[in-house]
Task: structure prediction
Amino acid sequence: NAGVTQTPKFQVLKTGQSMTLQCAQDMNHNSMYWYRQDPGMGLRLIYYSASEGTTDKGEVPNGYNVSRLNKREFSLRLESAAPSQTSVYFCASRSRQGAKNIQYFGAGTRLSVL
Amino acid sequence: AQSVTQPDIHITVSEGASLELRCNYSYGATPYLFWYVQSPGQGLQLLLKYFSGDTLVQGIKGFEAEFKRSQSSFNLRKPSVHWSDAAEYFCAVDDYKLSFGAGTTVTVRA
Result:
């Protein structure tokens, strides 16, 4: 029972490089989310996908793009990485958009941009 | 807009002692509230949730939380802390997305 799987677990980039963070869930959930976690700031929403085929900006979308590839997969892309994007990134999913549905989190991707 | 405040950045508690973590929220309607725990290097695990009804909710690992509308609070408690409770704890309020507090780091001393 994998739940939410994120790859890679760790990544080091140089400024200006691009990369894609992958997320997949096997719970048949409709809604998926990308957060970043920075010390003293909790988790902040970058983008979300309420259902397959839709994506929306969250609190801190600048510098990121997302793709909801299918119901299972939701990727986060950094086109030109900056040191300010050094963070821990979490993907989450829940059965559907709506506050009474619990979000389940992946183990995170730790990204350093030099 | 909804927001969550966790006033305590870091708490140190002795093993076997009680623990209380504070959470205050700002939300116009009936709040849906959560506590998550994050062990070092791990993802977030749900401890408990409040949607409606009984204001004292029980969670996993012996944790409980009390919703107090008059104080806009949702404090987390545990009567007797174990060394394995050392972690970071996040309070969150849910609308179409989760809004998290900044977190409280708990250190357990022997």
User: Anything to note?
Assistant: The interface with chain B takes residues 4, 33, 40-45, 48, 50, 58, 90, 92, 97-100, 102-108 of chain A (CB under 8 Å).
